TrEMBL record:
Short name of any one Pfam family annotated for the protein: IclR_C
Keywords from the named record: DNA-binding, Transcription, Transcription regulation
Any one GO biological process: negative regulation of DNA-templated transcription
Keyword DNA-binding: yes
Organism of derivation: Haloarcula amylolytica JCM 13557
Key word Iron present: no
Domain HTH iclR-type: 3-62
SUPFAM superfamilies xref list: GAF domain-like, Winged helix' DNA-binding domain
Superkingdom: Archaea
Full protein name: Transcription regulator
PROSITE patterns attached to this UniProt entry: HTH_ICLR (PS51077), ICLR_ED (PS51078)
GO molecular function: DNA binding; DNA-binding transcription factor activity
Gene3D superfamilies attached to this UniProt entry: 3.30.450.40, Winged helix-like DNA-binding domain superfamily/Winged helix DNA-binding domain
Signal peptide: none
Length: 260
């Protein structure tokens, strides 16, 4: 059973994070609580390092960085995951990441960008800004190759639970937005052993993802390779990237088994 005061503090933190900063009045309006109540929560969170206040704006505090790094470093096989990411990046010369499932979504816990790989101009707003994986970023599973790869390992009932909780929101005109389409795609992924997201998350970008299993056979996440459609195409899409993923995932899973 949840505790109301704790739930309220968590909701306030989520609002501030989603807005990238919020004022006291923003919290009062969105949560619909008394100003004094919101102020007490904000003050307590700030005093304990979970929030900082700059002028009238409350922002997420650095204490979360300490907890986040702790959570990441203790994820099953994390040192091996870092090595696998580096290996995959060198093999494909594209941008690679590892995501972990978390309450029906996926979160990036490691990423690597090859020195030659660039997807548009990252100094301006646009597809490239939305595309680049960032440690700690959450994504809907149905809109990314890694998320689809993880979903493909779930029973149909569990997939339905994810849909009920998070829906199937469209990111682009190519995003899967119907249950029937999603289940059909998951069957194709199970047959070929890896997932392909063709501009479902960002226009002009393709990703290939493969689930990673831990020593006990449970899914601990997925590795993916992403790049622009003009580069991740033809033999690169159909053979080179999938083969590199298979090799790196097999090697990673072997290391996880022998070191567990």
């Amino acid at each position: 059973m949840s505790v109301d005061t704790t739930e309220l503090s968590i909701e306030i933190i989520d609002i501030i994070s989603d807005r990238d900063g919020a004022r006291l009045r923003d919290i009062v309006e969105e949560v619909d609580v008394a100003k004094s109540t919101a102020h007490k929560h904000l003050t307590t969170l700030r005093d304990n390092g979970f929030l900082v206040k700059r002028g009238e704006i409350y922002q997420v505090g650095l204490r979360f960085l300490n907890y986040g790094e702790q959570a990441r470093s203790r994820w099953p096989g994390y040192p091996h995951i870092e090595e696998a990411i580096a290996d995959l990046t060198e093999r494909t010369e594209e941008e690679c990441d590892f995501v972990a499932p978390d309450r029906g979504r996926i979160i990036t816990i490691a990423e690597s960008y090859h020195k030659w790989a660039k997807f548009g101009d990252t100094t301006t707003d646009g597809p490239s800004k939305e595309y680049r994986a960032r440690t700690g970023s959450y994504y809907h599973m149905h809109a990314t190759a890694s998320g689809l790869a993880v979903l493909s390992t779930y029973a149909r009932s569990r997939v339905e639970e994810v849909i009920e909780r998070w829906g199937l929101p469209a990111r682009t005109d190519h995003t899967i937005t119907s249950r029937e389409e999603l289940h059909a795609e998951l069957e194709r992924i199970r047959e070929r052993g890896y997932a392909v997201d063709d501009q479902g998350y960002t226009d002009g970008m393709r990703s290939v993802g493969k689930a990673v299993h831990g020593p006990e056979g449970d899914v601990i996440g997925a590795l993916s390779v992403s790049g622009p459609t003009y580069r991740v195409d033809g033999m690169v899409l159909e053979q080179e990237v999938p083969n590199a993923l298979r090799d790196v995932v097999a090697d990673l899973e072997e290391r996880l088994r022998t070191t567990s």
